[in-house]
Amino acid sequence: MALNRRNQSKRSNILVITEALLIAYMGYITHFILAQINISPSVPIEKLMVNVGMLTIAILICSLSVGLYETKLRETFRGIIRRIFVSVGLSYFFVELISRTFFDALMMHPYFLPAAVCTIIITLVVFRYFTNRLGLLGLGKMRIVVLGAGERASIIEKRMRRDVDRIGFELLGFIPIPGDNREDGIRKEKIIHVKVDENFQQFIADNDVEEIVIACDQRRGTLPIDVLFECRLRGVEVTDLLDFMERETGQIVVNLMYPSWVIYSNGFQSQNYLRDALDYFLNAFLATFVLLFTWPFMLLTALIIWLDDGRRTRTSVFYKQERVGLNGKLFNIIKFRSMRPDAEKDGAKWASKNDDRVTRIGHFIRKYRVDELPQLINVFKGEMAFIGPRPERPEFVEKLVREVPYYNQRHNVKPGLAGWAQLNYPYGASVEDSMEKLKFDLYYVKHQSMLLDILILIRTVEVVLFGKGR
């Protein structure tokens, strides 16, 4: 597992360094061309280096902010192009602002920055195209085999069908083990018929296998412990299927969990005491910061909702609803009203993607999450955090606790305005969807940290920019 993380880190570092060199080179070439065609005068190399360096650093930081250097970025090429435009566009704004404010003497010709930005965008798009299509950064991929070809192993085939899902490893195939349920097992993947005995080491060496994933349906009496022990001594990673899926997909496969795995894992309670101690202060500070920038939009939204139907129906522009919070404690969540006043005249219902109960303005404010802004009040009251599982209604929680295993564990942390599940599985309108979202929520509960919170916060900004999610 550590070796795989190093390989992923290596690929990310290569990508960052390569793009930094490309950005800097295109900045230099842009100035050279503008000077050659007499559009801008030539400047001292020191001045050019400062400007190109500032632009390069700004683009790298903005690219990191919109997720362009994530090792598991699941995005279409069109989505990558959008991210490149956003990151370079933001960099243009920041460099222009900083140059005019603090480094007026280092200002380049007015045509330099727009021309450099255009050439850099084209270069990065072309580079990412060939990187994605030809797998130029596939160097150092972990070569793995899966021990098992039955029902448990089939979760890899079902959940990780696309090439982008396997960007961190090269799957050689599945090795059947006695006791596997082959009827509900692997269908389309490569099956490797090799005996897992004392000669298995030779197969591992001949195929440069770096990791063995244990995914057999029955372990007792079928798992070759001595052989796996020898593999581990020789430096081959031996990983449980649950740990493998958790690492590669950012979720915990709840329906495959078993008690011993939970016992030997790091549990679902935070061990970061400093983070817990500063929790309210950090969330209140963030809420204050966001409120300073968003209060005009909140005021405008309230006015539009009132003009749209609040004036006619005499209904509040805000919507309060009981939700389940930390340790199962109930609280009232506050949102801008995005549905009709009679939306729940027939009782509580799941919200759906194209819900006909949503008002005209409601579609817009839900798409860009403006309806969530009043929850800053819940943050100030200590009922919610910025990052955490989205709070659910008690009517639904009561049902989900009965039907979804480990569902109550998501209440070990404060609910949040944004969460890991919302970034990876936007809509939840059934028990089945709640099961899928729980896999990501439990991953967050298990791995909660300041760095993960920052990652979720940055990607949530991306969701707002591109109008994704809900």
TrEMBL record:
Broad class of where this protein is predominantly found: membrane
Membrane topology according to the record: Multi-pass membrane protein
Short name of one Pfam family: Bac_transf
Domain Bacterial sugar transferase residue range list: 282-465
Subcellular location: Membrane
Keywords, sorted A to Z: Membrane, Transferase, Transmembrane, Transmembrane helix
Protein name: TIGR03013 family PEP-CTERM/XrtA system glycosyltransferase
Family note: Belongs to the bacterial sugar transferase family.
Spans traversing the lipid bilayer: 12-37, 49-68, 80-99, 111-131, 280-307
